[in-house]
Amino acid sequence: MLELKHLSKTYRTGDQALTDIGFTVPAGQVVGLIGPSGAGKSTLIRCINRLVEPSRGSVVLGDTELTTLRDRALRKARRRIGMIFQEYALVERLTVMENVLSGRLGYVAGWRSFLRRFNREDIALAFSLLEKVGLAEHYNKRADALSGGQRQRVGIARALEQNPELLLVDEPTASLDPKTSRQIMRLIQTVCRERNLPAIINIHDVMLAQQFSDRIIGLRAGEVVFDGKPEELTDDVLTRIYGEEDWAQVRKDQTDEDNDRASPAVDLAEGV
Ligand SMILES: Nc1ncnc2c1ncn2[C@@H]1O[C@H](COP(=O)(O)OP(=O)(O)OP(=O)(O)O)[C@@H](O)[C@H]1O
């Protein structure tokens, strides 16, 4: 379980990115974090694993207060949090397997020198995860030989290799076509359900968020303005989060765009 209490962040520039955020994410719950550009979504995700230092408040993972940890204790705690990034953050010239195994070392600097030290269990886990994400036969390919969807699958396997207690996911589909985006969101949802793993997904696409989250949190100007079930995301709520729009038209445009962009060639390339 993850608990945020009175979390606030003011950057040195004076930008107040988050104001008094408080919510709890129980085991197994997938939270879609939505809001307009600049609402504070990335800042919130990064305050949880302390890539950004919160100005006030607390973040509790299980029974560990993360906000007061330093150095080694912080590095150890970060290994309990799996991160999945928009741009995958793979080491391009290493193989798929090596990238997945790197999850074992979390955020430890200089991990490359330890590559030879993985034990049998780590490697067996990596193989089973590659099977899970549909990439087993590609284990020995270099990361730079993969499509975007395949890279993101490696990113998911790497995060799971950490055996995390929480997944933080930052715009996982922003670089992907609509069909691959749905496949990736479905995969994240499935692995969270299977492992009873809580996740917070920063996601721009409201329809995807609605389809694949158990709960939606809407941020606007650094504050939570909606916290509820995906089906409660009415046009009025969307206006509260994003401001005035013709939501019926936005939905139609989004559907048309999805249909236009899902060409058969792309489907084949990304379908693994
Ligand atoms: N490193 C930084 N220094 C100063 N201000 C920052 C920094 N990072 C973000 N901000 C400010 O904090 C606020 C929240 O930004 P953040 O990137 O968290 O929003 P976001 O919802 O993730 O936006 P987007 O969807 O465009 O990525 C914005 O006003 C932004 O300008």
Topology:
Elements: E1 2-10, E2 16-25, E3 30-34, H1 41-48, E4 56-61, E5 64-65, H2 71-78, E6 81-84, H3 96-102, H4 120-132, H5 148-161, E7 166-170, H6 178-195, E8 199-202, H7 206-212, E9 215-220, E10 223-228, H8 235-242, H9 247-261, H10 264-270
Parallel strand pairs: 3-8, 3-9, 6-7, 7-8
Antiparallel strand pairs: 1-2, 1-4, 4-5, 9-10
The chain binds adenosine-5'-triphosphate.
Residues 11, 13, 15, 17, 35, 37-43 line the site of adenosine-5'-triphosphate.
Describe this structure in words.
The chain has 272 residues and is an alpha/beta fold. The protein has a single domain, classed as 3-Layer(aba) Sandwich (Rossmann fold). The protein is built from ten helices and ten strands. The strands form two sheets. The protein has a six-stranded mixed beta sheet with strand order 6-7-8-3-9-10, sandwiched between helices. β9 and β10 form a beta hairpin. It is globular, with a radius of gyration of 19 Å. The protein starts with a strand and ends with a helix. The relative contact order is 0.17. The model is unreliable at 263-272 (pLDDT under 50). Bound molecules: adenosine-5'-triphosphate.
